[in-house]
Write a structure and sequence with these properties.
Blueprint lengths: L7 H6 L8 E6 L6 H8 L9 E6 L3 H10 L4 E5 H9 L9 E6 L5 E6 H5 L5 H10 L5 E4 L5 H12 L9 E4 L5 H6 L5 E5 L2 H7 L3 E6 H4 L6 E6 H6 L1 H20 L1 H11 L9 H8 L2 E3 L5 E3 L17 H13 L9 H8 L2 H10 L12 E2 L5 E2 L4 H6 L11 H4 L2
Parallel strand pairs: 1-2, 1-3, 6-7, 6-8
Antiparallel strand pairs: 3-10, 4-10, 5-8, 5-9, 11-12, 13-14
Helix pairs in contact: 2-12, 12-13, 12-17, 13-14, 15-16
Length: 403
């Protein structure tokens, strides 16, 4: 860690010194909290004058409530959670929220139960047949009603001709409880982050049907989230926090050995409390699906990618709002671009990235092709939201009923 007058110590001692130095930083027990944990525990925060107090949360709802109340200053968060709070979706009062940076891309999985596997339901076509021929609905779990896992599950099912709000039941289960719910037979499948999908495979409780990177290669996932009030009150702190986590993100990907040591760190009881052999393989892109297939994934979990992972793209935030609209969580189209500009803290990120030597001069919009062949580039969000064959864009949406 460089601590010269032109490096981190200049931020600590000069006019850019953080206004608040003790930061309560929330996280969930998931492999993609890695950069937050590494920043807090491996010496990346202290040169910027920060002490990061890690606070593991039991559910995304708890994390959300503590972010809004100020009990947490910032958190490893679901992209869609930040936008839902900002828009007042899900039974909470609208609160101005901020995305400071992306924490990771890729690395989530859709798993099915051993029971379905025994019935020969091991691929999309068989699942489609089973769903439409069975007298009882399958139950799928995701981790938060507006979260990434809900949106990936719904998008993947819909791409296979399965309506996620009509053809199956959807329930919310906190990530660390997924395996126990699967084992108890309360759910038939789930979408969750690692290491819980790998853990289900290791315990022979099911198999990985699809990874989320097959749905959208290099998709946005977790973010560093906070309230807008935090950014306004502590702008230097927000910038320093991004700088520290950027340094940690870069460190994790500097070498395979750094990735292995990160997996070892995460396995500790206070973080993931999971066996190393459930964490390390998929953290390093080594996948085994439980059906006898093994591969090195070209779009595995990544934390930095030269800064491409961390840039808070406007189009990424806008995409989640299009899915809220698609599934009836929003009754009307918001001003997609204006809302994204409110939430995505591009200026804070660019200043922090520049200070640690990461290029952040690129476009805040990016273009991607998803599993159904649709191109998302942020150019026509309202049209994109309306373009799907399967949707629930009405006031009678089951998701709106659960608000």
């Amino acid at each position: 860690m460089i601590e010269t007058a032109s490096g981190p110590l200049a931020w600590v001692n000069g006019s850019d010194a953080p206004e608040k130095t003790d930061i309560n930083l929330g996280f969930m027990a998931l492999s993609d909290c890695a950069s937050v944990v590494v920043a807090a525990t491996q010496g990346f925060a202290q040169p910027y004058g920060l002490t990061l107090n890690l606070k593991r949360q039991s559910s995304w709802a708890n994390l959300r409530d503590k972010l809004v109340s100020g009990e947490l200053d910032a958190a490893h968060s679901l992209y869609g959670l930040i936008y839902a709070v900002h828009l007042g979706i899900g039974g909470v009062a609208p609160t101005d929220m901020s995305v400071l940076m992306g924490l990771n891309q890729n690395g989530q999985s859709i798993n099915l139960s051993h029971g379905l596997q025994a019935l020969g339901v091991t691929g999309p076509e068989a699942l489609d047949r089973h769903v439409h021929q069975s007298r009882s609905k399958l139950t799928f779990a995701q981790t938060f009603p507006t979260g990434t896992h809900a949106m990936w599950l719904f998008y993947w099912l819909a791409s296979q001709g399965i309506h996620p709000l009509q053809d199956v039941e959807s329930v919310v289960v906190p990530p660390p409880q997924m395996v126990a719910h699967l084992q108890a037979g309360r759910i038939d499948g789930f979408c969750v982050g690692e290491p819980w999908a790998a853990s289900a495979v290791k315990q022979n409780l099911g198999f990985t049907l699809a990874t989320t990177q097959t749905l959208w290669p290099d998709h946005p996932e977790k973010v560093l989230g906070c309230t807008r009030a935090f950014v306004d009150q502590y702008p230097n702190t927000a910038r320093a926090l991004v700088m520290a986590i950027l340094q940690a993100s870069r460190f994790i990907e500097d070498s395979t050995e750094n990735g292995r040591s990160t997996a070892q760190l995460l396995s500790a009881p206070q973080y993931l409390d999971a066996p190393l052999d459930c964490i390390e393989p998929r953290l390093l892109g080594d996948y085994a699906d439980g059906l006898g297939n093994r591969w090195q994934d070209p779009h595995a979990l990544r934390f930095h990618g030269g800064g491409a992972v961390n840039f808070p793209y406007l189009s990424d935030g806008m995409w989640f709002m299009t899915q809220f609209r698609r599934w009836g969580l929003l009754r009307d189209d918001p001003d997609y671009l204006a809302v994204a500009r409110q939430v995505q803290q591009l200026e804070v990120y660019r200043e922090a990235a520049s200070a640690v030597g990461i290029d952040a001069s690129g476009s805040p919009m990016r273009s991607s092709q998803l599993i159904d062949g649709k191109i998302w580039d942020g150019s026509d969000p309202a049209g994109y939201a309306r373009s799907f064959k399967l949707h629930a864009m009405s006031d009678s949406s089951p998701l709106l009923a659960r608000r």
